[in-house]
Amino acid sequence: MKIVCIGRNYTEHARELNNPVPDEPVVFMKPDSALLLKNKPFFLPDFSREIHHEVEVVVRINRVGKHIQERFAHRYYNEVSLGIDFTARDLQNRCKKEGKPWEIAKGFDGSAVLGEFISLESMNSPKAIPFHLDVNGNTVQRGNTADMLFSIDRIIAYVSRFVTFKIGDLIYTGTPAGVGPVAVNDRLEGYLEDRKMFNFLVK
Ligand code: ZN
Predict the structure, then answer these.
(1) Is 151 exposed, middle or buried (0-12, 13-18, 19+ CB in 10 A)?
(2) In the chain, how many domains are there?
(3) Measured in angstroms, how far is the CA atom of residue 50 from the centroid of ligand 1?
(4) pTM of the prediction?
(5) How far away, in angstroms, is 123 Cα from ligand 1 center?
(6) Which CATH number does the domain housing residue 82 bear?
(7) Ligand 1 center to residue 122 CA distance, Å?
(8) For residue 175, how far is its CA from the centre of ligand 1 (angstroms)?
C-alpha cells in the first residue's frame, strides 16, 4: 500500500507558503509506516521544532489501474475520509533550499493521520464536500473539495501515468489555507461535512 499526497492543491494555501500556483499536480509519497489510525496520540518527533498540521480529504483506491483516463477515474474509488498530512516545516524548508527531496519532512512515523472511511454516496454533496479542522476547539482550517485546483479524478489520471494504483492505496488530496504548528497537549478534531472523523491528542 502506498500513500500518494498532493501539494499546493488549494490556491490560498500555495500563497500562504509563498509557493507558485502549479499548472500540474505536485506529487509526493509517504511510506505505509507513516499511518496513524484509531485516534492514537501523535508524538512530536525530536528532529523538528515546527510540525504543521495540514488537514486533507483522503480517497481510497478500490481497483488496480494504470493510465486511467480522467473520465473513468471515478470508477476507482467510492469512499473518502479525512486525515492530516503532518509536515516538519523547518526540515521541509531546509530540503527545499538545498534542492533535496522532502521525504524526511513528510514521511516520518505518525505523519499520516487517518479517520474511518465513509461512502461517497452517503455524503450530502459528494462533489463539494466541506471539511474543517479544530485545534483545542477553535476552527483553524476550513476547505471544500470543490475548491481543489486539481480534482480527485484529475489527480488519479495524472498520477497513474507514472505509477500503477493498487487496491488500498490512499490519496491525500492537499490542504486548504490555515496550516500552522502543533504543540504538546493540543487536541485535533477533524470534520467531513458534520461528521467527526478523528479526535486525538498531540504528545
Ligand atoms: Zn499536504
Answers:
(1) middle
(2) 1
(3) 15
(4) 0.96
(5) 23
(6) 3.90.850.10
(7) 25
(8) 5
End-to-end CA gap in the chain: 27
From the number of C-beta atoms within 10 Å of its C-beta (0-12, 13-18, 19+), residue 22 rates as middle
41-62 pLDDT, tens digit each: 999 999 999 999 999 999 999 9
C-alpha of residue 172 to centroid of ligand 1, in Å: 7
Q: pLDDT for 1-27, tens place per residue?
A: 999 999 999 988 878 888 888 889 999
Q: What does the buried/exposed string (b/e) look like for 129-142 if buried means 16 or more CB atoms within 10 Å of the residue's CB? A: bbbbbbbeeeebbe
Element holding 13 (H helix, E strand) = helix 11-16
Full domain range(s) for residue 144: 3-201
DSSP codes of every residue in 61-103: E-S-BSS--GGGGGGGEEEEEEEEE-EEHHHHHHHHHTT--SH
Q: Tell me, in angstroms, the distance from the centre of ligand 1 to residue 138's CA.
A: 20
Q: Which three cell numbers stand for residue 158?
A: 495524472
Rg of the chain, C-alpha, whole Å: 16
